[in-house]
Each structure stands twice: as structure tokens, then as C-alpha cells.
Amino acid sequence: MATLDDIAKLAGVSATTVSRVINNYGSLSEKTKTKVFEAMRELNYQPNSLARSLKGKKTQLIGVILPGVSNPFFGQMVQEIEDQLFKKGFRIILCNAGSDAEKERDYLRMLMANRVDGIIAGSHNLGIEEYQKVGLPIISFDRYLSDEIPIVSSDNYHGGELAAQALVRSGSKKLQIITGANHPNSPTNARLTGFKDELKKSDLDFDVMEISFSATPNIKGLKIKELLSKREVDGIFCTDDLTALLVIQQAKALGMRVPEDVRLVGYDGTNFIQSYHPELTTVMQPISDIVMVMIDLLLKRVDDHDCELEDNYVLPVKLITGETTA
Amino acid sequence: MATLDDIAKLAGVSATTVSRVINNYGSLSEKTKTKVFEAMRELNYQPNSLARSLKGKKTQLIGVILPGVSNPFFGQMVQEIEDQLFKKGFRIILCNAGSDAEKERDYLRMLMANRVDGIIAGSHNLGIEEYQKVGLPIISFDRYLSDEIPIVSSDNYHGGELAAQALVRSGSKKLQIITGANHPNSPTNARLTGFKDELKKSDLDFDVMEISFSATPNIKGLKIKELLSKREVDGIFCTDDLTALLVIQQAKALGMRVPEDVRLVGYDGTNFIQSYHPELTTVMQPISDIVMVMIDLLLKRVDDHDCELEDNYVLPVKLITGETTA
DNA sequence: ATGAAAGCGCTAACAC
DNA sequence: GTGTTAGCGCTTTCAT
Fold it and tell me: Which chain A residue has the Cα nearest residue B273?
């Protein structure tokens, strides 16, 4: 692979001059510029960004740590992150942390070793104290990581309220929440709180069922089947859309009709769900806006490591009404 | 951020020694090792992989160029790639090329500039001659890129045959194929050919409808609606599962029953579809195996740029039978 | 068992 | 308008 020196030799100038041409810096004669450009073309030259970054420049690399990209919600989020970051000249290193805290720690070390300019983190793992001392700009999605790390999230509390309202409005009397395991400090808990608080107004009964985020769809389906077979609930709020899909599936299998026998509200409202399951009433998170805010904040910190930021940035959610609460 | 020299000073040894400790190289006394390790811990030291790579080492970075990760198929594929590569000590730079050839070219340049060790590419863009001269190990998924680049794919031809068989077996008489726009040199065409060839045996009629891969679900839905309203077909093969979902949606809206009025076979068989749409008959691509082969080949080329590889690696597909062809 | 010194490819004063 | 030089943080001979 050609180096700056190769170009310099071929163009008959010094390395500095080539560097100047590349970075469009200082004053160059048209003649040299042309010569250098030609040489670059001829050797199919690409400046070694490793060397560049070594000299103190940014790497233009951002680490993205999320549970995993096979989930449509995070798939869309990563796509959005990649898209917006690309336009600003950054690339991303994708880190699927899954539910493996050790892997997440490894990734954190690697990202430090690679001198990424910053990190966007939104995994579900807890107790990773390493976040305290990465010494790199970090923005978190929807999780508390450390006191210094700003959290961007949608308005989970209001989302919970909206879900409750939709269920109540549709005439449900015996309500059920199906949610991931209860993580302390997680803004996601607010979905629950909002839901409960809203219900207090109407004095209705409800139950909470927790199913680990990392359980397989089969396991989740089983638990849902158990729940539904009792035929005791007529309104369900799932704190994510995929679980809601499972409820529809199991209800159908049990001969229960949605929404006649049981009403249903999901959460997330990805493009995928909106296109392929428009029947589902759900609370839509503004993924694009969330990402925009995260990137904005992150790049601010990249430019100035010590710039002051709020602890929390909360973006509005929206209820999308489908037939499952008709 | 601490450097090797900082550690050397703190431990009271030379930089060379620290380097030896890090790389577990040459002969070291236990005493020095301990001192150095302590210093590293104290300063939360991470070796600068940029500097390391500059010295001729590999970057342990692999570029992954795909249409986009918000599609469940590619989402699962990327997740699989990331997973398998992580275990071998590599990280990935994610490049969503979308349907933007210029973006793909940009990414190619960036990947060269970043000195990634290799590239896995499976975008849908055509006419990117740059692949000819990247000078980096590349493996392609399901697309022809250049004569030197091996293609790994599932057995598209047999997949087409299986789809046809399933439809015929279920008693369909007037068949329809819905597929992406016909790209020259794309192994995906084989799905069509396999389907057609199989049909010749049974002497049934069929039509082909092309819908661009990059069309929105709404657009696709519209075309499908037009098609279905004529009520002329009773068996449909979609060359991807998401389109099949759209067919189910439109059929329902038109009051047509699946499979009574129209039978349906999809293609891909992701975990997502298997879990959330088990009713869909589909041809499953062995994503995990495909990725394993791609990575195996890629790493061979990383170790030895000139190692001989086959042009094509074809992995077996499997028909998953659901109720849409019952 | 350890250190000194050169160099990977690039940028940025500092000359002229 | 262009060249010289000194590093960035690390690895790697070659000494000792």
C-alpha cells in the first residue's frame, strides 16, 4: 500500500508538500497540486488514518454499544446512528453487548485501545463500573451508567400513561403489564410508574408480569400462554412491541379475539412495526430524534471534553392507535 | 491517556521492558512483571492500538458492508458476524450502504484508510469497480463483485425449486413470483430460475412481478394489492419474507384467506420470522453457516493474501413449512 | 534480564 | 511556495 513518501517521490516533491495538498493547507502552486493529485491517483493512494490519528488527530470513529442489532428496535437505532454519523464524517464500531457484561467490558477496553472519539452506549447490562473511568466522551441511551454520563431517552413515564389511557378508553377492566425484569435506576421503569399512576385515576385493578429481556421468544410465549389461559385479563400493556406480537400469537392460538376479548398496547413503534403490524396500538419512541440528540451531545463532548451537559434529555412519545385497542 | 512511557517511568524500567511485558515476549523477571502490571493498573493503561498497527501489525478490524441493519435478515447476519468475529479478537466497522453506490464507494475508501484487515461485502449496489483495486481481502455475500472475490451464498436455485414444490403440492394452479429488481450477475436470480425450472415439470402457468428492493413497504403493499384484487393467482412465491408478510396483510384487507384462497411461500427464514411468524412457509438460509464460511475464508486471506479460494461457496437451504401452504 | 535507538506514516512548527 | 526536522506511541533489532 502506497505511502505519503511514495507519492512525494513520484511527484518529485517533499512529503510535507503532499501532506499540504491532502489537507488543503498553506499555499500551493497549481502545478504541484496537479502533479501530486496525479501521483495519488496513479498509486490509488489512501492516507493512512492510523498514522494521522497517532499524530493527535481524531480517529473519526465512534463506538456503539447496544444489546444487539437483530432486534428491530436496535436495528433501526443503529441504522439511524450510522446514517447521521456518516454524514458528519464518522464511522462506527459496532459492539453487540448482548446480555454479557464481560463482553461489554472487553469492548470498552478495545474502544479505548482504538482511541475512538466517543461512545454511544445503551446496553442492558448492569454493574459495569468501568464506565466511570473510560475517560472518553459517552452518551447513554435510556440507562444510568454513571453520574457524568448524560442519558437520552423517550418520555417513558408519559408513554406509560398513554398506554394506560388507551386501555382504559377501550373499556378494559382487568389490566396486565408485561415488562422486562425490573432494573434499578433504569428509566424504563418509568413506563411502569406512568402506567400505574394513570390507573390510580380510574381505580382499576392490574397485575405485573416480569419476563427477562433476554428470554427467548419461546419462553416468553409460554409465559404469556399461561397468563392468557386463565382468561382473567382483558387489557394488556407490553413494554415492547415484540412481546405484544407474541401476545397476539398466543391469543389467536387460544381462540381469543383481539381486541374483542383482550385489548393490547405495545411500546417502541419502530418503522418495522408500523409497516408490518399497523394493527398494533403502540407508543412510538422518536428514534430519529433520540439519535440526533445523542449525536449532538456526543460531538459536543468530543470537541470539548469538559463541556457541561444536563443529566437527562427526555423526548416526547406518541400513541399510535391500531385495531388492538379499537 | 497514559502511554507506554508513563508506565515505564512509574515502574522504573524502560519502554522496551514494558512492551515485553504487554506482549509476553522474551525473558522477564517476575519482579519486573509485577511492577509493570501494577503501574498499568494504576494508570488504567490501554496500549494504543493505532501505534501498534502503524508498526505493521494487523488492526483487528473488519469492515462489514451491507444494505442496512434495520432489515431483520441483515440484522441477524451482522449480529452473527459480530459474534463470531468477536470470539476471534476482531471488531467490526459497520457500513450500511443502503442503495447508495456513492456512499459505498466512500466507505470503501475509508476502510482502506483505516487499514482494516479485511472486508465482508453484501450490498445491493452495482457497478462499483472500486472493488477491483481495494487490495484488501474481501469476501462477498450473494453478489458478484469481481473475479477475484469469492461469493458465499445459500443454494438459491434449490431454494426456488423448494418454493415451487411447496406451492404445487398445496394445489396452487396460477402461480406468481414477487421478486426484487432483476440484477445481472446476482446469485439471487437463481431463486427465480430454480422456481421456473421446477414448474416446467408440472406445466403450470406463472407470472413474474418485480418490485425494487429499495421500494418502501407502502409502495410494495400497493402493488401487491393491485395484483391480488384481480383474484387471478392462487399461489405466490416472494423472494423475501417481508414481502410475504405484506401479501398476508393485503390479502386479509381484501378478505382473501391464506391458505384457502391463496398459498404463500417466502424466503430467508430468519430467527425473527420463525419466532414471530411461524405461520409462514419459507425457505431458510443458513445464516450462521454462511457467516462461518465467510469468516473462515476471509481470515485465510488475511493470513495469506494470495491463498487460492474457490469462486463460489454454496450452502444448503431448508424448507420450513407453515400454515400458508397448508 | 534489560536498555538504546531506529522507524512505522503522518503532521506541524520552523526555516528559507 | 516548498523543504527540514521532530515527534505521535509503539515494536524490534542489536547491544550489554
Answer: A217
Contacts of A91 in chain B (CB under 8 A): 93-95, 107, 110, 114
pTM of the model: 0.96
What whole-number distance in Å separates Cα of residue B277 and Cα of residue A214?
19
Q: Assess if residue B67 is contained within a domain.
A: yes
Answer yes or no: do A257 and A174 share one domain.
yes
Strand C interface, A 25-54, C-beta < 7 A: 25, 47-48, 51-52, 54
Please answer whether residues A35 and A13 qualify as being in contact, where contact means their C-beta atoms are separated by less than 8 angstroms. Answer: yes
Neighbours of B128 (CB within 10 A): 18
Map grid coordinates 487490495 to a residue.
Answer: B135
Positions in chain A short of pLDDT 70 = none
Query: Which cell numbers in the block locate residue B170?
Result: 398445496
Q: Is the per-residue pLDDT at B182 higher than 80?
A: no
What pLDDT shows up at residue A150?
A: 97
Domain holding B17, by residue range, is 4-47
Q: Give a yes or no: residue A144 inside a domain.
A: yes
CB of B55 nearer than 7 A to strand C: yes
CA distances for A55 relative to A50, A51, A191, B202, angstroms: 9, 6, 47, 69
Which residue matches cell numbers 456503539? A64
The count of domains in chain A is: 3
Q: For residue B184, what pLDDT is reported? A: 76
B27 and B134 co-located in one domain: no
* CA dist B102 → A82, A93, A305, B107, B125 (Å): 16, 21, 33, 9, 9
Residues in chain B with CB shorter than 8 Å from the CB of A61 are 93, 114
Work out the minimum CA distance from B222 to partner chain A, whole angstroms: 12
B108-133 per-position pLDDT tens digit: 999 999 999 999 999 999 889 999 98
Summarize pLDDT for B148-167 with one digit per residue, the tens. 999 999 999 999 999 999 99
* pLDDT at residue number A245: 98
Handedness of CA B197, B199, B203, B204 (dihedral sign): negative
Domain-embedded: residue B122: yes
Among A144, A132, A145, A126, CA closest to A190: A144
- One domain, residues B144 and B162: no
Residue B209 CB coordination number (10 Å): 16
Q: How far is the CA of B22 from the C1' of C1 (A)?
A: 16
Domain assignment of residue A197, yes or no: yes
Measured in angstroms, what separates residue A43's CA from nucleotide C5's C1'? Answer: 32
